[in-house]
Prior knowledge:
The chain has helices at about 5-10, 35-50, 60-80, 95-105, 125-135, 155-160, 180-190, 210-215, 240-245, 280-295, 295-315, 345-350, 365-370, 385-405; strands spanning about 20, 20-25, 25, 90, 115-120, 140-145, 165-170, 195-200, 220, 235, 255-260, 265, 320-325, 335-340, 355, 360, 375-380. By secondary structure, the protein is α/β, with parallel strands linked by helices. It is an enzyme of class 2 (transferase).
Amino acid sequence: MTLNVQDIRRDFPILNRKVNGKPLIYFDNAATSQTPQQVIDVIVDYYSNYNANIHRGVHSLSQEATDAYEQARLKIQTHFNAKHSHEIIFTAGTTHGINLVANGFSSLLKKGDEVLVSALEHHSNIVPWQMLCERTGATLKVIPMNQNGELILSEFDSLLNENTKLVFVNHISNALGTINPIEYIIEKAHSAGAAVLVDGAQSCPHLKPDVQQLDVDFYVCSAHKICGPTGVGMLYGKEEWLKKLPPYQGGGEMIAEVSFEKTTYANLPHKFEAGTPNVCGGIAFGAALDYMNTIGFDNIAKYENTLLDYATEQLLQVDGLKIYGTAKEKTSVISFNVANIHPYDIGTILDKMGIAVRTGHHCAQPIMDFYQIPGTIRASFMFYNTKEEIDTFITALKKAVMMLS
Ligand code: PMP
């Protein structure tokens, strides 16, 4: 099957709207993706027909909601090829998943232990580990990057030693689009005895990770990057790790028995799912994966690569434009600046022309510090974007640059 972008665009009602009187061109997909009607319908159906609390209810609505929620967990398990469904923990998103793991490691790390973070991380995959190091006395070390925005693997090799307990790296950088060689990183980290957490927030919309094949210890993502709703995501953890980690939050749902003397915890996955979850969000997350799998990740990757190549070629024609992040392995994210014009000024003018891009540090200040810039303009594409939209964007960008020069 090839991808029919005009058919696909009809699935996304938001793509019909105008912004500032101009047809919306949405190039802020790395921040959040848009939602197809198929997923919106699932959300409406949930609240119209079977909204209820799950797992405890004896009545029909509760059972229907529980079944749909657990069905979604199975879809996620199948999508990521986890060995067990209880290795899939519903979270509020990538940030929540990382904090859950970082909190769990508080009781497993001690002074003298080392943890490695990549120079390419989102703040979500930096700050929780810094907090962990403050709590435990472990040391945070950084795998450096080169000018192309690629990790320097020889430096990674030499940072690894018998004290390294954890390595965390994103699969794809949200600021530059670099696809990191996580297979290599996981293999090397394991041979040094360290566990690996991969932040999949940016990879999940573009490729289909196989957690067993990767042999990754933890993998996290957010549904809102994958055509699903905000406020829900998943943590995959190997069973052995999830059994070892203490619960993150206490409350209802995560217990076996409670008394004032002692509480025992529920089995996986409920041990990590305290309180009423985002039931509708979880079900819609499953529907979003169904939607994307119907299009097919091979088709998505192939099409998005053509958009990336085309946009890169066109952008490089703009006088004074510099692209940050020129890795060989890259996804459909382009970060750039034009001459000395502040990214925010360009972003504001583009918005007036109906074009949504991101400007700023993209929650990755260390990357901006590396390039000694305050921020960039970031255009990020999904399978529902078109070459025609890129043409309009380039014309608008040239106009904005002329106005600001
Ligand atoms: N990591 C990366 C690489 C991201 O792109 C994002 C979202 N911008 C996050 C983590 C955080 O995701 P969320 O805000 O959904 O928790």
